[in-house]
Structures are given as structure tokens and as C-alpha cells.
């Protein structure tokens, strides 16, 4: 399981034997997720575990599904941080642009601040200009990142608990597989 990985050797997809196919339902993928990538992850896990019985196949299928789930959580957490980054840029721009604005111009200034934050995300030239302007006022990338984490702290703790829960379930399944193999006297998984 933790042995060296030979990238020179082509990885063949390990398919579930036909008699165990009913144990392996179609994965529930989100839009943008790749069935090929899911199957590739599943194949390397099946190859590593080398299940031989229905119980072992059930455990291997669940381990692969949990591994995919963990990857999903990491991707979603990254996308969430990018979304909060735009909000952090918006907050920094407010601190610069909204200072000493006359009350009758605040709505217009707010509109332009929001527009600048959107431009930062979609226009590389605007992003460079905005980042230079922010840096001139002391908002470097570290300050923006700090703001991102402050804004996203509650959602990040949710993702952390999801990741930890999936990791714990995966470890328990691996332990269960190890115990099952030990109880029937077959070769066990290498220590992780």
C-alpha cells in the first residue's frame, strides 16, 4: 500500500470481476468530475488491495469511494477559498476606496468597488493594477489570504470535519479489511 510506485509501468484498469459487479454501484459524481478519473483512482486502490472475496470487494469499493470523496472535498475547499478571495479583495478595496466618501456618493463608490473586485477575478490586467494599488496601501497577498481565512473560517471548519470524517471511515475500513484477512488467514495488507 505504501510501497514504491512505478510510473514507468502502464496502469491497467482493474475492473470488478463480473460476479461482484452488483456490489459496485455507479459513482455519484458532481458536475465537472470525471468518470475516467474516478475509475482510475478506483483501479489503483483495487490493485493495491487486491480483493479476493465479496467482503473484501465491498470494503475496497467503499475505500475507493471515500478516497474520491476526500479528493472532492479538497477541490471544493480550494474553489471556496478562491470565491472568498474575491470577497477579501472587495473588503480591502472598500477600506481604501470608501474612506472619506461623501454620503451621496457612497452608493456609486460601492458599485465601483464591487465591479473592481469582479474585474480582479476575470481580467488579469485589472488584477495586476488592483493588486498594485492594494500593495501600495499595505495589502499584500498575505494580508488578503488572512482576510480569506477569516471570512471562510466557519466553512473551512466544515470541510475539515468532512475530510477528517472520511479519513477516519477509510482508516476503519482498512483496519476492518486487515482484521478480516487475519481472521481467515490470508495475506494481510502491508502496514500503512
3D architecture notes:
The protein is mostly helical and 192 residues long. The chain has five helices and no strands. The chain has helices spanning 35-49, 54-97, 106-122, 124-136, 141-184. The model is unreliable at 5-12 (pLDDT under 50).
What key attributes describe this structure?
192 residues, mainly alpha, elongated
Tally of helical segments: 5
Listing every helix as H and every strand as E from the N terminus to the C terminus, the arrangement reads HHHHH
Oligomer: single chain
Strand tally? 0
Quote the distance from N terminus to C terminus.
Answer: 7 Å
Structural class: mainly alpha
| Strand percent estimate | under 5%
Question: Could you estimate the helical fraction of the residues in percent?
Answer: 55-70%
Kindly state the mean pLDDT as a whole number? 88
Calculate Rg over CA atoms: 24 Å
Uncertain stretches:
5-12
Biggest pleated sheet: none
Broad shape: elongated
Short note summarizing the structure:
The chain has 192 residues and is an all-alpha fold. It has five helices and no strands.
SSE topology sketch:
Blueprint lengths: L34 H15 L4 H44 L8 H17 L1 H13 L4 H44 L8
Helix pairs in contact: 1-2, 2-3, 2-5, 3-4
Amino acid at each position: 500500500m505504501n510501497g514504491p510506485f512505478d510510473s514507468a509501468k502502464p496502469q491497467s484498469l482493474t475492473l470488478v470481476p463480473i460476479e461482484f459487479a452488483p456490489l459496485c454501484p455507479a459513482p455519484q459524481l458532481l458536475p465537472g468530475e470525471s468518470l475516467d478519473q474516478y475509475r482510475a483512482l478506483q483501479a489503483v486502490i483495487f490493485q493495491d488491495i487486491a480483493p479476493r472475496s465479496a467482503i473484501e470487494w465491498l470494503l475496497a469499493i467503499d475505500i475507493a469511494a471515500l478516497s474520491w470523496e476526500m479528493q472532492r472535498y479538497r477541490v471544493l475547499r480550494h474553489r471556496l477559498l478562491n470565491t472568498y478571495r474575491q470577497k477579501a479583495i472587495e473588503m480591502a478595496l472598500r477600506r481604501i476606496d470608501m474612506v472619506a466618501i461623501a454620503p451621496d456618493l457612497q452608493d456609486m463608490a460601492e458599485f465601483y468597488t464591487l465591479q473592481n473586485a469582479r474585474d480582479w477575478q476575470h481580467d488579469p490586467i485589472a488584477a495586476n493594477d488592483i493588486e498594485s494599488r492594494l500593495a501600495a496601501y499595505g495589502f499584500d497577498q498575505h494580508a488578503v489570504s488572512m482576510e480569506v481565512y477569516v471570512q471562510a473560517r466557519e466553512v473551512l471548519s466544515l470541510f475539515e470535519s468532512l475530510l477528517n470524517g472520511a479519513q477516519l471511515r477509510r482508516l476503519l475500513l482498512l483496519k476492518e479489511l486487515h482484521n478480516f484477512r487475519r481472521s481467515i488467514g490470508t495475506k494481510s495488507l502491508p502496514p500503512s
